[in-house]
Specification:
Length: 459
């Protein structure tokens, strides 16, 4: 109830914040314009989506074997794989590496998985300086916030907001242009890369047959986070596996087209282990932390497991009318929007987060745009049903449904009250649920049954 009440309170506030809506509508409009061009690179987009969906579904059915294959091949190249059942284990292992290296300076490229385990907070408690090097992540870190969006962490901020933030925190000149601020960050981060003992990244894909990670980005900060520090740590969910390096030429264009509207992102790296004897660049040690964190709970579900096919393009968030109105922070979780609403009840807790699955209009746009064909709106319905079957619906909801079923099950019961009394009952039971800004529907003066009898003179 606490999470639900907070969700409703935050949604009520942000949904009527016209300034917030203006920023989000503008930023998503830019995305919508770009994605049309990005999709044009495909001769047969539907076929590409079907192939990607098939590959990911095949992987989910044999996930254990592909993960073992990845580990074997990665170890052969001198890398080290760490299996983490949950957030606590992952953080403990990473802190152990930091302690062993006496690391005080850490650079990070964008990673939702590290957000999932609250890694920054854990490192900061150990008095290590952790710098987010993705520009969007750098902005929200500077503001003391979490990422607002899977792909665009600072989507909720305008250029004026960023200018004021930089002026306040970094003493940059007031009314600086985005170009000047970007230039400042580039120089600021360059020094941090040179000082860092450890670089931490996520991975867009784990390539089983190569024992390598695939990382795609637009700023070069991921490449620098991997190459400057002597130790490279990758934190990645077990669901990111793909079978072969041959699959990358399918998934990278899909991810870039649906994520940012590009044909392919600017920097695309495939890294398999630390630098070898004949190589000049790269880290001396490389670790991959494979995180479960209740993904196995989702994998055990016959239908909902399809959600683990997600490639984190963020397309479903950008088309979702609910997300665009209540924003990313209202969910109060790492993953928001339709994909978050499907997976959060399993990777967090069904009873505490079932309301995410109900926060949807079920318009189906999320399913239409998904590049790996996850039937998101169908899975939201499956989640809703499961929460009811498990008895997690509220007592008042149970009473309302019981009364409704009693009345609607027989014509005799439906005709017991006059239309006026029916309207009074609706007002009494549903006024709060309907919300203060909508007018309750009214029962017509004559029912369909009455109109039918009158039309055909039925006694």
């Amino acid at each position: 109830m606490e999470n639900l009440n907070q969700f409703n309170k935050d949604a009520e506030k942000i949904a009527f914040d016209l300034n917030h809506r203006k920023k989000i509508n503008f930023n998503i409009a830019q995305y919508n314009e770009a994605i049309v061009k990005g999709k044009q690179q495909f001769a047969d987009l539907e076929l590409a989506k079907e192939r990607a969906a098939h590959i990911k579904y095949k992987v989910l059915n044999d996930l254990d074997s592909y993960l073992i294959q990845f580990e074997d091949n990665f170890n052969k190249k001198g890398g080290k794989v760490i299996w983490a059942q949950n957030k606590k284990e992952a953080v403990k292992e990473i802190l152990g590496i930091v302690k062993a290296k006496s690391a005080k300076n850490i650079v990070k490229s964008k990673s939702m998985t590290t957000e999932e385990i609250d890694l920054n907070q854990a490192l900061e408690k150990r008095k290590a300086e952790v710098i987010e090097t993705d520009l969007g992540e750098f902005i929200v870190q500077l503001a003391g916030e979490k990422p607002y969006h899977i792909v665009t962490p600072a989507m909720h901020k305008s250029k004026e907001d960023v200018d004021k933030l930089f002026n306040k925190k970094l003493n940059t000149p007031a009314e600086s242009t985005p170009e000047k601020l970007t230039h400042y960050v580039r120089h600021y981060l360059r020094e941090k890369f040179q000082q860092a003992e450890i670089g931490i990244t996520g991975a867009n894909f784990l390539i089983a047959d190569e024992g390598a990670i695939a990382l795609t980005e637009n700023e070069g900060n991921g490449v620098l986070s991997m190459s400057f520090p002597k130790t490279h740590i990758v934190v990645v969910g077990i669901d990111k596996i793909i079978p072969s390096i041959d699959d990358v030429d399918l998934f990278w264009p899909l991810l870039s087209s649906y994520g940012t509207g590009q044909n392919v992102t600017v920097y695309n790296s495939i890294v398999g282990g630390p630098k070898q004897k004949d190589e000049i660049d790269g880290p001396e040690e490389m670790y991959v932390v494979l995180l479960d964190n209740k993904r196995s709970n989702l994998l055990a579900q016959e239908r909902q497991r399809r959600a683990l096919s997600c490639i984190h393009c963020g397309a479903c968030l950008n088309v979702c009318p609910v997300y665009k109105n209540i924003g990313g922070y209202t969910y109060n979780t790492t993953y928001s929007g339709p994909i978050g609403a499907v997976i959060n009840p399993y990777i967090l807790d069904m009873q505490d987060y079932k309301h995410h699955s109900f926060a949807s209009s079920l318009c189906g746009k999320c399913t239409d745009v998904c590049p790996v064909k996850i039937p998101l709106h169908d899975l939201l319905l499956v989640n809703r049903n499961e929460s009811v079957v498990k008895g997690y619906n509220l007592s008042k909801e149970k009473r309302q449904v019981f009364i409704y079923k009693k009345i609607m099950s027989k014509r005799k019961n439906m005709d017991m009250m006059s239309q006026g009394k029916k309207n009074m009952m609706i007002k009494y039971f549903f006024k709060k649920a309907w919300g203060p800004r909508r007018e309750l529907p009214k029962v017509a003066e004559k029912s369909f049954n009455q109109l039918w009898k009158e039309k055909y003179n039925i006694e």
